[in-house]
Structures are given as structure tokens and as C-alpha cells.
Automatic annotation (TrEMBL):
It holds the Pfam family Glyco_tranf_2_3. Keywords: Glycoprotein, Glycosyltransferase, Membrane, Transferase, Transmembrane, Transmembrane helix. GO terms for cellular component: membrane. This is Glycosyltransferase 2-like domain-containing protein. GO terms for molecular function: glycosyltransferase activity. InterPro entries: Glycosyltrans_GT2/GT47, Nucleotide-diphossugar_trans. It is found in: Membrane. Its main location: membrane.
Length: 507
């Protein structure tokens, strides 16, 4: 009995020692991996496999902000093959007005008329449908999926992002994302803190096993056209269900998962796409079909590929984490950022669940990216491990109060040092340092909140997206399973513009 009590007494200090050792090893491994990271070399003109004229840029847009004109000007400066803007039918004329802006026209003229701008539409706001509409209409060998608030500031950014494609097995290229704004608010400080911490961890994860700490950012990602034009990809991408809801958000995590692990995913023998047999992944019985939203684009039988046979190339990521490849983006300067955070965290939890349990599963994932797998498992266990850490520290205070106080002081000092380093790197954030502290500890509630709202599908920062999603849900709940929604699609198709100095309207 005495021996049992003695063991229980020392359980807390032993646990604390294990956690402390793990933290020290993790910090050492992260520093070592970041030092090992090497960006992709800028190729010589004679050896380049791809030119900027091989790139089609696809921009899905909803609730388009006036700053979109600045986004377009930055893209035009790189002189890609084409820019395809995919809006909703109700917003078509507003987007046209932004494209016809004098500043954009001037940038198009400066590009020498080499870049065609086209505007396509879908019936309902859904980023995945919009991307597929643009992908299917594109002509480039390399496709750049770009948000409507992405700003390509470096004049040679596109060249740097094309560099990884010198290696034939690189299928997806990502880059660092930074804030672009003339003002600073507590919300923006929180966002900068999150993105700043992610930059270092991206280098560490990529150097460790070629994976990534979460997913390639959807603000700007470049992919080989053959991946995105694959009918199996398009079908799976636009028929991705979670708890009965067809997914709108999480497009970047889906694409990252597909590129990294498609070669290990099992097909359903009936429809040749990833099995959706688990209840979490099934649609509602009367869920609206995604093809009703795509104007005259058949994702089942795309002209670019054979839907019956897709190659299982084991693609790799190419993370170009340099200042020259850095893409700017706007950050919500107000309480809307809280909604954005909710979407990010919820999407992150779904992504981890999909990777570890469904596509491709923890064992298959480990074979490709063991470091990424371990970090995902740790992320899943955070709500469980945190109470254990607190118990270990509390129990150690009873047995070795001096040791516990030393460890607690060391942890606090290390954290303060990290905040000080952050303020030196981003001096304009100093006034709102407390926002960085709050977002650092947001996981204390965010993990539980995400589990409680795991079945919620909402964009939360684009009003029209969530409004149309609710309308589609109402329609799908009230319609007959045999109702053909496609009867409402306009007979003449989309209004398409070609803007290269002169506007040409075609129906």
C-alpha cells in the first residue's frame, strides 16, 4: 500500500519530465529542420521548363471588394497566359465594372495585350464549383489558383513559383503569405501572429519529410494542369460531403491531401472515386447535385481526360518559402476575423480527421509523410494532453515545489522571449501585443468549439456565400429526388469577356 502511494506521488513529476523532454526535443528538431530547408533554385533561362506564358490564373470571387482591381493589376504585371475570373451570375456586372477600371486597363496595356481576361459565372456561390468552372475553361499547363484578395507584389514572383516545377514529380507549389494593409488593429495583430508562427513550422515540416504543417495556402497555389483537369479529381472535389453538407470551404486542404496522398487512396469499385461509405462523409438523401451549379461544364466526362482511368503518380509538394515568393493578402481588420478563425480551425480539424482516418488513413499517411502524420496526431490529442500537463505541474508542486517553480518560470520566460522576438520582427504590432497573447492561447477553447460545431459549413466572412448556401439547403430539402434543377440554367451559357486592351463581349 505504501509502495502504491509512493508511485502515485511521483507520477506527476515523471509526467512533467516526459513533457519537458518532449518539448526540448521538439524545439531542437524544429530548429534543425528549419536550418536544413533549402528553397528551389532559380533556373537559368536556357534550362527553364515552364514560362510565365504557360500559366493560367483562376480567381473565384464572391462579394468582390474594390481592392480586387489592385489584385488584378499585380497579376497582369506578370504577363500570364490568361486570367479567368469566376463569379456568380448575380455579381457578373459588378465584376465587369471592376475589370473595366481604368487602372486595370492601363495594367493590361502595359502587359502588351498578352494576357486574356475572361469572366465566367456559376449560379450559386461555391468556391469549389467556381474553381472547377475556371479549371475546365483554362488552357495553361500550369494553373495558379488565386484568391481575389491576393497581391503579387514582387515583379518576379511567378518565376520563383515556377522554379519547383523543374522537378518532374512536383505537382503542387506553395508560398509564404503575409499581410498587406496600411492600418493595424488587434485583429490583424492576431492574424500576423498566426501566420508568422506558421512560416517557421512550414520550413520545418517540409525539410523533415516533404510534407507541410497543415496545408498549402489557398491564397495562392500553383498546380500542374493534368492534376486539376483529372475528371476523378473534379468529381471528388465537388462531391466532398461532411455530415450531410457538401463542402464549400476547405478547398486548399482537399487539394493538398489529393496531391500528397492520392496514390495511396482506395477507390470505390462502383464509381471509381474515394469511398464515401462512412456516415460522416455521406450526403443528405435529397442533397442538390453540384453539376446543377456548373454552367455547361461536365465534370463527369471532361474533355481533358478519361474518367475511367487516372494515373496514380506520387506527386510531391514544392514549398518556395522565400521573400521573393511571398504573396500578400488582406486581413479582416474587425470582428469578422473571428469568423475567419472559426472556419480555419474547423476546416483544420476536418482535414486532420480525413487524413488520419479516411483519406488515406494514418498508416498510409505515415509511409509518405511521417513527420506530418505525427504533428497531426499531436494536434488531435491537444485537448487531452493539456489537462495532463496541468495535472503534472500541480502534482510536482506538492513533491518538488522548487523544481516546479523553476520549470514554470523557464516556460514563462521562453514565451516572453518569443513575444519580444515577434515585436522586433513586426514593430508596428507592439501596441496590441495582448492580441498576440490571446491568439496564442485560443486553442484552450477553439478545439472544443470545433468539435461541437464540426457539422457546420459556413464561410462566415462572405455574406453572399452563406446566404446562398442556406437557400440551396432549403431547396434541396423541399425538392423531389428526381427534380432536374438544370432546367433553370440559362440556354445561352455564360457571358464571357476577353479583355486585352479591347473588350469583346461574346455569348
Amino acid at each position: 500500500m505504501v509502495e502504491s502511494t509512493s508511485c502515485a506521488t511521483y507520477l506527476g513529476p515523471v509526467l512533467l519530465a516526459v513533457f519537458l523532454l518532449r518539448d526540448l526535443l521538439e524545439r531542437w528538431a524544429s530548429s534543425r529542420n528549419q536550418a536544413r530547408y533549402r528553397p528551389f533554385a532559380f533556373p537559368n533561362p536556357e534550362t527553364r521548363k515552364y514560362h510565365i506564358s504557360d500559366v493560367s490564373i483562376i480567381i473565384p470571387t464572391v462579394d468582390t471588394d474594390p481592392s480586387f482591381t489592385r489584385c488584378l493589376c499585380g497579376l497582369l504585371n506578370h504577363k500570364p497566359l490568361e486570367i479567368i475570373i469566376v463569379a456568380t451570375e448575380t455579381e457578373r456586372y459588378r465584376v465587369q465594372a471592376l475589370v473595366h477600371n481604368a487602372t486595370v486597363q492601363k495594367a493590361a496595356a502595359a502587359a502588351g495585350g498578352k494576357t486574356h481576361i475572361r469572366i465566367l459565372t456559376v449560379r450559386h456561390a461555391n468556391k469549389r464549383d467556381q474553381l472547377v468552372q475556371g479549371i475546365s475553361a483554362s488552357r495553361g499547363e500550369i494553373l495558379a489558383l488565386v484568391d481575389d484578395d491576393a497581391f503579387w507584389q514582387n515583379e518576379r514572383l511567378l518565376w520563383h513559383l515556377l522554379a519547383p516545377f523543374q522537378e518532374d514529380d512536383i505537382g503542387l507549389v506553395g508560398c509564404p503569405i503575409t499581410k498587406v494593409s496600411n492600418i493595424i488593429t488587434p485583429w490583424e495583430v492576431a492574424a500576423i501572429r498566426l501566420r508568422g508562427k506558421r512560416h517557421g513550422s512550414m520550413k520545418s515540416a517540409y525539410a523533415a519529410d516533404g510534407g507541410i504543417n497543415f496545408c498549402v495556402s489557398g491564397v495562392t497555389m500553383l498546380l500542374r494542369g493534368e492534376i486539376l483537369r483529372d475528371p476523378e479529381f473534379q468529381h471528388a472535389f465537388t462531391n466532398d460531403f461532411w455530415m450531410g453538407h457538401r463542402q464549400n470551404s476547405g478547398d486548399d486542404s482537399f487539394i493538398t491531401r489529393w496531391v500528397l496522398f492520392r496514390h495511396q487512396m482506395k477507390d470505390d469499385d462502383n464509381n471509381n472515386i474515394i469511398s464515401q461509405s462512412h456516415p460522416w462523409l455521406q450526403r443528405k438523401p435529397q442533397q442538390i447535385n453540384n453539376t446543377d451549379n456548373l454552367n455547361h461544364i461536365n465534370v463527369e466526362n471532361n474533355v481533358h481526360g478519361n474518367p475511367q482511368h487516372s494515373t496514380r503518380t506520387q506527386w510531391r509538394l514544392g514549398m518556395q518559402l522565400t521573400s521573393e515568393a511571398e504573396v500578400g493578402t488582406s486581413i479582416m481588420p474587425d470582428a469578422r476575423f473571428a469568423g475567419q478563425l472559426k472556419r480555419w480551425y474547423r476546416s483544420g480539424l476536418r482535414h486532420r480527421l480525413m487524413c488520419l482516418f479516411f483519406e488515406p488513413g494514418i498508416r498510409a499517411m505515415w509511409r509518405t509523410c511521417p513527420y506530418m502524420t505525427r504533428k497531426m496526431v499531436e494536434g488531435m490529442l491537444t485537448p487531452v494532453l493539456l489537462p495532463l500537463r496541468l495535472y503534472a505541474l500541480y502534482a510536482t508542486f506538492d513533491v518538488f515545489p522548487g523544481l516546479a517553480l523553476f520549470i514554470l518560470t523557464w516556460k514563462i520566460c521562453s514565451y516572453i522571449h518569443g513575444l519580444f522576438t515577434f515585436s522586433l520582427e513586426y514593430p508596428y504590432t507592439g501596441k496590441y501585443w495582448w492580441a498576440a497573447v490571446l491568439v496564442d492561447h485560443l486553442y484552450l477553447v477553439s478545439d472544443w468549439y470545433c468539435w461541437a460545431t464540426l457539422g457546420t459549413e459556413a464561410w462566415m466572412t462572405r455574406r453572399d456565400v452563406d446566404q446562398e448556401e442556406r437557400q440551396v439547403e432549403v431547396v434541396s430539402e423541399g425538392m423531389s429526388p428526381n427534380t432536374d434543377m438544370r432546367r433553370d440554367v440559362r440556354e445561352n451559357g455564360n457571358v464571357t469577356e476577353n479583355v486585352d486592351g479591347v473588350v469583346d463581349m461574346t455569348d
